[in-house]
Write a structure and sequence with these properties.
Radius of gyration: 24 Å
Distance between the termini: 54 Å
Shape: globular
Bound molecules: coenzyme A, adenosine monophosphate
Strand content: 15-25%
Structural class: alpha/beta
CATH architecture of one domain: 2-Layer Sandwich
Number of helices: 19
CATH superfamily of one domain: ANL, C-terminal domain
Largest sheet: 7 strands, mixed
Amino acid sequence: MTTYREAYEDWRADPQGFWMRAAGTIDWVRPPTVAGDASRPPSHRWFPDGRLNACHNAVDRHVAAGRGEQVALLHVSAMTGQEQRFTFGGLRDEVARLAGALRALGVARGDRVVIYMPMVPEAVFAMLACARLGAIHSVVFGGFAARELAMRIDDARPVLLLTASCGLEPGRVVDYKALLDRALELASHRPAHCLVLQRPQLQVALEPGRDLDWRQAVDAAQPADCVPVGSTDPLYILYTSGTTGKPKGVVRDTGGYLVALDWSMRHVYGARPGEVYWAASDIGWVVGHSYIVYGPLVHGCTTLMYEGKPVGTPDASAYWRIVERHRVRTLFTAPTAIRAIKREDPAGEKMRAHDTGSLRALFLAGERADPDTVQWAAAQLKVPVIDHWWQTETGWPMAANCLGIEMLPVKPGSPTRPVPGYEIVVLDAAGESLPAGTQGALAVRLPLPPGSLPTLWNDDEGYRRAYLAEHPGYYTTGDGGYLDADGYVFVMGRTDDVINVAGHRLSTGEFEEVLAAHPQVAECAVVGVADELKGTVPVGLVVLKAGVQADPQALERELVARIRDEVGPVASFHRCLVVQRLPKTRSGKVLRATMRAIADGRDYAVPATIEDPAVLGEIASAFGRAAG
Ligand code: COA
Ligand code: AMP
């Protein structure tokens, strides 16, 4: 039995050897002879001379190893009431045929393919089909609006778009095709074709010449084999919110990613091949990429893909019913989902009506897991509830209680200790390492481990600027927090303008761009305000142009609708207040953190650099609270 300390020291003593050994659990067409390669900064490249294929590792190799009859993908839809099962053999056939269809449409190694799809099995086929051909997929979350999709299309410049006629949200059918059409009107890049999956809930018109019917294309296709690629070839681009309005194209390599995921499945999650692993997230987020698609499949688990919500589809026992029915061993979701369930089933009666005994643990990530939620879930489920900390950029956890190594004591409010591969430090503004218990910027000593981003798409300079420049020798996570005397990590929140709304990462800068474009708005700020269910929700504050008379309620409705139309419903933007002025420093910097404290009713110190302290009282009354 290895202890956490031994595993961590094992990595620290010989990172190259550690990762070379880990690389032995995946299939290579040409095995690597070296682990890390620092010769091409800013990227640190992993297994540079290795060659492999991600789809082979996720699918074909399990068929070759005799797992062809095991269920690989189990799709459960609370929206349609249907379940679908695909064995590894069946998944291979589906993916090979779709890859053949993509190849017939000209998709080849290195080409980009944008996938804008709801939670249907075909979305997983699509990702794997791209990987099979060595093409680079870029999945865009369905809750984003057309403008967001257009920005990603223009940056990735795909040869092909894949979509479905609709997504199913409670009480409404979301016309994905209409959103895609609108995005293509806004985008300057034009892919040659769109492949459209018609779902029974909505049949959409196809544009002759450009759009093709998914099923017809697949029926006419010849299966395609896996194309070997270099370990450092990109597997995908996943856009994520940063400080500016423009999303950042996080690049994921192939070899390092698969090695890290396979290692994490075993050592972080404690999962074994053949088990049912359920990440209740969406393929549009990093959790979906790593732990709905690649991680569980590469590890030979059955991955459960869920179309539905934790509550309301139909009720708060939706998760537990599925756990019982499918003997789920690992469940992974966002704290928000558990808060939503707790709100409707505080005594856990609906939970206890189901046998959740198959569960080994519940993992939480995507936002801060508040101690109440962790403790409630642990008391009800009677299994470890494991908070773990990571981000789109890293692709897998930076801090966790590594269940597959050794379960350490849980400290609610902490995602436990750094995962082997990550040396986490806390830095002050001058880049000095801070002692235990002192809050600062959470950073990771370079090089980042396999699986973490090597760069941003077509933007090495942006990568350097956003993550490496602030503290030379370290990757800046964008989160603030501290380490305690036992080395436990405490993540206190973002230090930039990124907010986490119901576990969804969004940029207040992006919202501000939309509000500022309104003809009556002179200036604006958006702050993330504490919310019992969603953790944080964005609230806008706008100052009107001189001489403009506007009805605040009507303007709020208009601005809320604009954010919904331009960012998407996932923004959960419902409040926008008209104020006379914004609190600023003498150099003109808007004091967002102070406004956040006012909105949350927390104590705050009046910043010494404030231009006019009286404005804080105005903001407090706008939020309907007493100042201070
Ligand atoms: N396509 C289109 N619209 C979508 C969408 C998608 N894939 N996902 C969400 N939306 C829409 C919703 O329909 C909703 O629209 P509405 O304002 O018209 O109701 C809006 O975006 C906000 O959605 P959501 O964040 O799901 O909030 P909700 O109020 O509908 O539900 C929760 C609240 C807590 C149940 C929900 O947020 C949840 O399940 N959270 C868990 C999050 C999660 O798994 N995160 C992944 C990181 S691990
Ligand atoms: P995303 O890139 O969407 O995965 O969001 C990453 C961000 O979510 C991180 O930078 C954190 O701010 C936040 N986050 C994710 N997991 C946790 C966690 N376990 N505790 C606190 N914050 C978290």
